[in-house]
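Translate sequence into structure tokens.
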Amino acid sequence: MTDLADAPVDEPDGAHRRRVAPFVALAVAVVLAGLFVVLAGADPARNETADTQLLDRPAPAASGELADGTTFDLSRRKGSWVVLNFFTSNCVPCRREHPELLQFAEQQSGLGAVGAELYTIAVGGEPRDVVEDYFAEEGGDWPVVFDGDGRFSVAFGVSKVPETWIIDPDGVVRGRVISEVTADFLSNRIQLLREQT
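Result follows.
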């Protein structure tokens, strides 16, 4: 004799789906909530460094044109700490980090002869007047190197901006940051590198 209580009950197909649907919806909601928490907690200004074959090696021979038409030759900057910030005026992260670069330039200027030199490398063949207008409106009196033919960017392997490089007084690459930078990060990093040499 068969116990009817243990016999499988045939459910209409729609009833089974109605029972499972709330669990699927709950699982999707949990995944989306987790993703939201991760994205909300992400710091867009965190400094991400990246390995590069150039690290701890002489900086590549790179040159570009300054606003006054003269040539900027990186190899002639030996003897100073040099910070290269690759930039375009229509890059949102570049715009966000600009106040930090203003603060960094001021900090380094306050150090006198031992302060790092900051150079913006304008990539992408941006028209000079656009870049010059940007600096006139947003501030910044450090030199801008125009990389119209892209050779400067190629020499450093820069594919997107912002990207910042630190070069020591011997012309050796000491750091690369592939995201927005802060004034404190750059100043502290250079100070740490000074103490190591």
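Note: The CA atoms of residues 66 and 197 lie 31 Å apart.
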